[in-house]
Please model this.
Amino acid sequence: MMMNHTLKSQCKVNPGTRITGKWHSNKYMIMKELGFGANGVVYLARHNDRQVALKISDNGMTITSEVNVLKSFAKVQGSGSLGPSLLDVDDWQTSRGPLSFYVMEYIHGPDLLSFLQQKGKAWMPVLFLQLLNDLARLHENGWVFGDLKPENLIISGPPPKIRCIDVGGTTIQGRAIKEFTEFYDRGYWGLGSRKAEASYDLFAVAMIMINSAYPKRFNKTTSGIAQLKEAIRARPELQQYESVIIKALQGYYSSAGQMRSDLLDCMSDDKGAVHTKGNTTGTKTNSKKVQNAHQSQPLTRQRYRKSKKKRGWMEFFTIALVVAFLYALYIFLKLQ
Amino acid sequence: MYTGKIRQILLITDGCSNQGEDPIAMAALAKEQGITVNVIGVMEHDVIDEKGMTEIEGIALSGGGVSQIVYAKQLSQTVQMVTRKAMNQTIQGVVNRELQQILGRSQTMEDLPPEKRGEVMEVVDELGETVDLEVLILVDTSASMKHKLETVKEALLDLSLSLTARTGNNHFSVFVFPGKKNNVEKLLDWTPKLQSLTSIFSQLSTGGITPTGPALRAALTSFEEKRSLRSLLSNDDESYFEESV
Model:
């Protein structure tokens, strides 16, 4: 998105500046700029020897609206939640007029894509399972994150934990999505509305998974799912998750929990891994084969469950037999 | 809750007007009638010239709206952002006036302590979701815009997608200038969905002149016709949000 330059210069604060709140008179020392978005600039600041993140905007409305979201996050999730915790809200009286700001916990770490690049792909499912868990809680409380994208996802730690640093797009369920980024927006791909629903976020999660294999993203050529399916099949590291990604893209999941358990199934399914190995050789020449493999994947999972069930019965009989034998022995001893 | 509606003109252009009355005066006239004028300047690789830039900012300023200069590529996102921002501005204006009535003097949202603002903001959000919206889109089809029209069309369909996700009703109308015969031509009459735009839009012929002023005047007339038609039909007094700020 195009940055409004007048906005940026207005909120430009030099390192070393001391900011004192008009209402609560807390003092903050600006250390450096962390980043800027369409609605303001975020700084690293120091308050009583504690590092905090401070967001300034000349638009009081966006500050108030984001503060509302952070407050309701705190109410439902407690600490260690997806978003940063809110510390202070205030105005700063400058010579050019008042600027609204809020102060939040400073979440430090690499963003999702750089983390995956540094630490390897093994972390991918772990982080997505974490993310889906957090999203499930968020959705249960009537919110939809909206502008979900890797730039906004920070891996803090250790131990590594996925956190989200920009809550500007968070919307009450059932309303229209406030903020979005085209690549992660199902409306842009012609695959759904911009109504705030759990499935809107899950579409974005699927796109972030695709994004992890295509760090530079790609442009839309045709609307619809065909291009995305193609993209998934062209990358071997995505094929293990293909069924989950495609289901999420098509709006099949109505809750983050469903997607999470399917993702877990993908992980524990050894046969799935064998399939993907076969697929990697197949994709270049035969896309039909891949389709077959994709269709057969749920079947193998079913078979796996069935065999598990059978094993369950075996266990039951063995235990029953042992108990019966012991009881018979007990009776026999009593009779003597 | 409000039963009012928000009326906006969205002007998409790439430069300076060169025919007819002053567009800035027309924008001021719109504002007086409670209609906000927003302007999006579309540029290619180069920057829009100084004169065009001043005019774009001037129209939005006197029209009480928002202006933004973008590359054609970013148009979709900007169109929806500008519309939403302007809508929120209008709603905030209304809410501020309500606050003044309740609290007296020149109290606005900024004079409230941050803790109280949150509750007011919830009202603004709620209104933004439920209020009825009328957007008249005015597209510059002068020669230099020719190869950007496809992008404009996509941006408008995208806008329709964003706005129809709201609970409130939407009405759109599309005008292009210059038209085939006149300065301005109505491409699409008031409709709740922009989807019907697809077929006509790509066959547009482009002209040489840029009569921005007359186009804005025609847009105002269209709003008036809509209002009088509505009152004839339903015979009830509609309350409109009036521009403030």
